[in-house]
Amino acid sequence: MKIPTVTLMVCAVAWTLTGCISAPEVVLVDRATALEEQAAGSFDDLEQRLARAGMNPTPIPFTPNQLEDLGMQPSPLVDPLNKTPAERVDELLLRHCIGEGNEGLLVDTRRHCKAGRMTAEDTALVQRVNRARQQLWAWMRAQKSRTTPGVSEDDLRGRWQRVHAEGLVCGARVQAVDGSWGEKTC
Predict the structure, then answer these.
(1) Are 182 and 174 in contact (CB under 8 A)?
(2) 93 and 169 Cβ atoms separated by less than 8 Å
(3) Whose CB among 65, 97, 137, 183 lies 3.0–4.6 Å from 92's, allowing a Cys bridge?
(4) How far apart are CA 109 and CA 107, in angstroms?
(5) Domain locations in the chain as residue ranges
(6) Superkingdom, according to UniProt (predicted)?
(7) Tens-place pLDDT, residues 100-136
């Protein structure tokens, strides 16, 4: 062997014996590190709220079937603001805010209104329905006069009223021929 190689080996052995190179210290931790605690999160606040909620009595929600068994109507599944004009007229008829007059037109009977009151929109709706009915009767008379001359509008209106009365909502306020008011029975 050559001298530089032996010298290098001796220096290496001497250097390791002096303690310059040592194994790293191993630290054993019996609890989670700060990073692990942050990742796990702290649920103290949530646990306290849950414990308080368990102590506070609250009502038990009923199913729609249970509410119906108790005689309560469930809330509608559709938005009540999007009712059709026919549904709004039926609602006013049931509440007795309007009635079916003996002349075939809707009559304002708001004095007998069972629940709520009539709005300006409801009054405008009643006027539109009455105008539409009068236009229908005029059109029917024009069509009928082509085939049967001499047919009166009153006769056509009476026929229309009989057919229309069958489709009226049950419980609607209806005026009799003598002018008295009653409810439609089904």
Answers:
(1) yes
(2) yes
(3) 97
(4) 6
(5) 79-184
(6) Bacteria
(7) 998 889 998 888 888 777 888 889 999 999 999 999 8
How far apart CA 92 and CA 172 sit, in angstroms, is 9
State the virtual CA torsion across 144, 146, 147, 148 in degrees, nearest 10: 70
Q: Find residue 99's DSSP bridge partners.
A: 107
Which residues is 26 bridged to in the sheet? none
**Among candidate residues 176, 49, 92, the one with its CA nearest the CA of residue 184:** 176
DSSP string, 77-109: SS-GGG--HHHHHHHHHHTTSEEE-TTSSEEE-
Question: Per residue in 72-102, pLDDT tens?
Answer: 766 666 665 678 888 889 989 988 889 999 8
Do 100 and 90 contact (CB within 8 A), yes or no? no
